[in-house]
Amino acid sequence: MSSPTTAPAKPTQSAPTTPEFFQVKVDGRVVVVPRLSPDWRGQLVPTTMIQACFAAGVMVPHYCYHPKLPVAGNCRMCLVEFGTPVLGPDRKPLLNPDGTPKITRAPRPAIACATPVMPGMEIYTNTPTVRAMREGVLEFLLINHPLDCPICDQAGECKLQEYAVDHGLAASRFVETKVHKPKQVELGPRIMFDAERCILCSRCIRFTRDIVGDDALGILHRGSYSTIATWPGRAFDNNYTLNTVDLCPVGALTSKDFRFQMRVWFLKETKSICTSCGTGCNILIGSRENRIYRYTPRQNDAVNSCWMCDAGRLNYKWIGRPDRLKEVRGPGGQTRVWSAVLAELAHRLGQAPRGSVALIASARQTNEELFLLKKLATRLGAITDSIPREGQADPLLVSADKNPNSLGARLLGLCYTEMGINLPRIAHGIEQGAIRTLIVFGEDVTRHGLAPELLARLDTLVVSDILPNATTALAHYLLPGCAHAEKRGSFTNVKGRVQRFFKAVEPPGNARPEWEFLAELLSHLTGQPAAPSLEALFNQMAQEVPAFHGLTWTGLGDTGLEAKV
Amino acid sequence: MIVRRDRLTIWERLYLTAIWGGLKVTFRHFWRTVVRRRPVTVQYPEEKPVVPPGYRGAPYLVRDQTGRIKCVSCQLCEFVCPPKAIRITPPGPEIDPTTGNVEKRPRQFEIDMLRCIFCGFCQEVCPEEAIFLMQDYSLTGLSRSEMIYDMDKLLRLGGVHLDPIRKWERKAREAQAQETVPPTLP
């Protein structure tokens, strides 16, 4: 589209502008694409051929391209053939005798990830030339690639394996000696690097430099001896290094924590939410037979894009701790049965005079549990609060609020905007003898102003928790709860997004999800039947709480919905 | 395809002809067993039948001629085993210096011989030629737990299998020969 070089100030009539949406044909299928699409930063740039192919539902194999990273174009795997419409001298498309636009096939292929589309372009992804190119690229990649599939962690999720099966040759022509490079290199405190397996797509370099902002990796040497390394004097230890393990299409970068733990095809992947801070990154819990092996991030463009921080990723081991609370304990310390304890507890709480009950609910409980706790508190006339948890934030994902559901606690009325402001009142009340019953859910209150001597003055101390601590040791009624991986529910993140998560593993022993036994307790207290399922409970909560109006459990989907904050 | 159903001849339709045919078989067996003294049966367990090569007996793990355990805990056999008789515990992240450049060796490898159906899929899928179905067909035990063979027992029963290729040693030799040429990381 060239405009005349004379008189640049005058707008030219003869230069046609490209329309905002136009048609492109991919393998004969017509698809309408926008002229500009958001790039890895969200800025609008010309739509590339690979985006048009994905829009048409055609999968073009690629290694170095990633929608969330700047385009590099070095792997050459996405080479496709294309044709552009022939334009006449009047810049109008020429037509064939049968009325279809005349297309000139380009004499050489183009990489789909970096070539912009034009109106009327035709993309061919399955011609004999394209198939031969893919075979060629794979053959070159496999020349020095080690025969490590039996010992490589990436087996089962390795793009080289997948494309070799789909697009590669069956037999190898390679008879020379492969180039050997360092293996089992500790690139960072959490990353193991194998230089022989690297296909030099540079995804890890681009991620660390552009997304995290920590320019730590680069390529040393050249040709067949090229290797990824950290720059001298810099360590590869930022809080997002394990995302390069997700990004790496082969097994060159692997997680030291997950190394040789389990083959990925055995892992059941459950959609869940990370609970290490208020951001609520969407994750997949990889588990097998009630043991959790790893967390991997799920894509959610509204929350965490495709990433998660290392601290949250490695924070799953406590779920399988052997000292988890497993049994219901009654007064006197003996093991009890749920049904008996809940009935007894309901009776005891029902007799507590109004104003003599306090309830401390953790901001790590789910929305549904906090909703039921609020109902309980209202019924008993209890003074409520939560415990704040602050930490270090960072510009990318990590929130300063280390509770996954602070906003949920506030919206459901369990605490004021300033969390923890009621705790001195509760402590004072216990000291004066005004508060005789304390219900604690998911917190160790001895660390937040309620010393054990104070707790000893209570008539009834009801504690529900997951791991034993000083508060659970003093409890009259101990109700073992579940970790987020062992129950279903929803959290509200710091930005007001309500996201749901599912159950991955079974809770240990007799532990039950808190919403289940709370619903039963409330039904004993109030005489009204409990909500029959979690979905019904969520929908009930959405109706009764103004901030959650209009939300439904199924409506939350995979990416969540915004609450009316 | 069309199945021809020819009409039986008059002799074939006669009852006694069929009886005579059966008697011929009986007499042939009688002659063979009593007169020529070559019975088809074998006095098991004093005499044992000859097991042909390629017989699918019990699966065992093998070592190669240098004594290295060939299994690298890739868990393909565990995945492909139809009755899920194989249970492997992978080695975990601790680097084991005894594995050399092979890097991986199972921490525990159990085959429940009562679940095993002797199909041979594990042998077929193993990329390291580490598990073979051998000649044992009579496996006995006094309890179910006794019939879960662990790695020591499987290796002991498997013995040594000659490996002419020796891929890992060859890789280690090549890497050593290239030591000054490939880059080392600073």
Write up what this structure looks like.
The complex is a heterodimer of chains A (565) and B (186). Chain A has 565 residues and is of the alpha+beta class. Chain A is built from 15 helices and 26 strands. Helices cover 23% and strands 19% of the residues of chain A. In chain A, strands 1, 2, 5, 6, 7 and 8 form a six-stranded mixed sheet that branches. In chain A, helix 8 (367-380) links the parallel strand 19 (357-361) and strand 20. Chain A is elongated and about 90 Å long. With 186 residues, chain B is of the alpha+beta class. The longest helix of chain B is centred in the N-terminal third of the chain and has 21 residues, at 15-35. The radius of gyration of chain B is 27 Å and the shape is elongated. The mean pLDDT of chain B is 92. The chains are: A alpha+beta (565), B alpha+beta (186). Chains A and B meet through loops of A and helix 3 and helix 6 of B.
Helices and strands, with pairings:
The complex is a heterodimer of chains A (565) and B (186).
Chain A: E1 21-26, E2 29-34, E3 36-38, E4 44-46, H1 49-55, E5 79-85, E6 103-105, E7 110-111, E8 122-124, H2 128-143, H3 159-167, E9 185-186, E10 191-193, H4 203-211, E11 217-220, E12 227-230, H5 242-247, E13 253-255, E14 268-273, E15 282-288, E16 291-297, H6 310-313, E17 328-329, E18 335-336, H7 338-350, E19 357-361, H8 367-380, E20 383-385, H9 406-411, H10 423-432, E21 437-441, H11 452-456, E22 460-465, H12 470-473, E23 477-480, E24 489-492, E25 497-501, H13 514-526, H14 534-544, H15 553-556, E26 561-562
Parallel strand pairs in A: 1-8, 19-20, 19-21, 21-22, 22-23
Antiparallel strand pairs in A: 1-2, 3-4, 5-6, 5-7, 5-8, 9-10, 10-13, 11-12, 14-15, 15-16, 17-18, 24-25, 25-26
Helix pairs in contact in A: 2-3, 7-13, 8-13
Chain B: H1 10-13, H2 15-35, E1 59-61, H3 76-80, E2 86-89, E3 108-112, H4 121-125, E4 131-133, E5 148-149, H5 151-158, H6 167-177
Antiparallel strand pairs in B: 1-4, 2-3, 3-5
